[in-house]
Design brief:
single chain; alpha/beta; eight-stranded mixed β-sheet; 15 helices; disordered N terminus
């Protein structure tokens, strides 16, 4: 098995054992009603700002985190107070996380005094929690930063992933026992996907079909930190990059979400895959690999269009809409920070949110790098200061020089509350 696929399987296993980023907390946890734990760290001289940290996806609640370990000392030295909760639950705990974080603000104020301002921040799923806090009215925070976030919400994200998964199973591995929904054991399912992917990447035909599935899932053509960004015409390097993120970026952990919402919260009925490929703006990339493989792209799209579809469950989708599908209407300034080459939370999601939101309260910062949540402490502090300037002045400044102007491929299955899902 290719080393990068072994790493993908290890990443799946880690999701069921520990948070995505190992972090520690030096403060003594306290308990809120319902068993939620929270903790806070106070600086020697408080500047009046509380930073409310929301962690990313973890199957275990673990200890509450007030900030990532590598940032804590610098933030405390700068005068920021830090706080966060364990959400009271592991997994896709949006339903529990948002009220737990609001309760943490109240508990912090009772113990340490009312903050002058509260800034919510978080990465990955924690960026979606931050987005929810920024959208609520009345807001409990004065601003938010969503890093590498699932910012366009669970329904659109999982629908887009399901399209890529359906293409992969239909065209690459119809007999490999891969589950699209009702996965039960995500680790075992991911292992089957990784094995089929390993075989597919060894042939031109398999690589072409992986490229199609990756594009439908919204995976960019650069996903590996430490590797150079492929040139626009280097189609082989791009599909290789898609393959590095494919298992995690397409066959996302579903079992926990299905245990909360029920099966059928994402669906493939009514989707025209040929139209989706055209909408992606990446047809030339896929078509070039199909020509090299001697395959008919039109025939594969017809085959994919004829595959059995997965129906929507109204009750399951309604749960995911409530907990949490954004409305793209932040009530306070919200800053989204993303790498152009993130293969786990598609950059297209940030663009979809930006296109739907009022720019007076929303801005994006892009860094030309790859990987999921790979920001340096300097980049995180830069984003924090950028948001603070917006709160202080009422206007967004020009993006810092270390960021880039970027518009990714469009999100193929956008879905926001109060608007029809595509």
């Amino acid at each position: 098995m290719r080393p990068d696929l072994k790493c993908g399987l290890l990443a799946i296993a880690m999701l069921f054992q520990a948070p995505l980023a190992a972090q520690t907390n030096d403060a003594v946890p306290a308990q809120l009603p319902g068993g939620v734990q929270w903790s806070a760290d106070m600086p020697a001289q408080w500047n009046g700002t509380l930073l409310l940290w929301s962690r990313g996806y973890s199957m275990r609640a673990g200890q509450p985190e007030s900030a990532p370990r590598e940032l804590k000392a610098a933030l405390l030295a700068a005068g920021y107070a830090l706080a966060g909760s364990d959400y009271g639950s592991g997994g896709w705990a949006l339903e529990q996380a948002v009220p737990a974080q609001r309760a943490t603000i109240t508990a912090f104020a009772a113990r340490h005094g009312q903050p002058r301002r509260v800034i919510a921040w978080g990465n990955s799923m924690g960026g979606l929690v931050t987005t929810a806090l920024a959208e609520q009215s009345p807001a409990a925070v004065q601003g938010g930063i969503a890093f590498c976030a699932s910012i366009a919400g669970s329904l659109g994200m999982m629908n887009m992933a399901l399209d890529g998964a359906q293409a992969f199973r239909t065209l690459v591995a119809p007999d490999a026992g891969i589950a699209l929904v009702g996965t039960g054991d995500d680790r075992a399912n991911g292992a089957r996907v990784a094995a089929a992917l390993d075989g597919a990447m060894k042939t031109p035909q398999g690589r072409a079909r992986v490229a199609l599935a990756g594009v439908l899932a919204g995976i960019p053509g650069w996903t590996s930190p430490g590797r150079p960004e492929p040139a626009p015409a280097d189609h082989e390097a791009q599909v290789e990059e898609i393959s590095h993120a494919f298992v995690m970026g397409t066959f996302l952990p579903r079992a926990d979400q299905e245990s909360r919402a029920g099966v059928g919260f994402s669906w493939t009925t009514g989707i025209n895959y040929a139209a989706q490929l055209r909408l992606s703006g990446r047809t030339a990339f896929v078509a070039a690999l199909y020509r090299k493989a001697g395959l008919s792209l039109a025939d594969d799209l017809t085959r994919l269009g004829s595959a059995p579809r997965i129906a929507r469950s109204a009750s399951a989708a309604a749960y995911m809409e409530r907990n949490y599908t954004p409305n793209a209407r932040p009530q306070v300034p919200l800053l989204a920070v993303q790498a152009v080459g993130d293969g786990m939370t598609s950059p297209s999601m940030q663009q979809a949110y930006a296109d739907a939101a009022d720019r007076r309260n929303f801005a994006s910062l892009w860094f030309r790098q790859a990987g999921h949540c790979t920001f340096t402490p300097a980049q995180i502090l830069l984003a924090l200061h950028h948001l603070e300037a917006r709160i202080d002045t009422g206007r967004w400044r020009m993006p810092p020089a270390s960021t880039v102007s970027h518009r990714p491929a469009p999100m193929l299955r956008p879905c926001f509350r109060t608007r029809a899902c595509k």
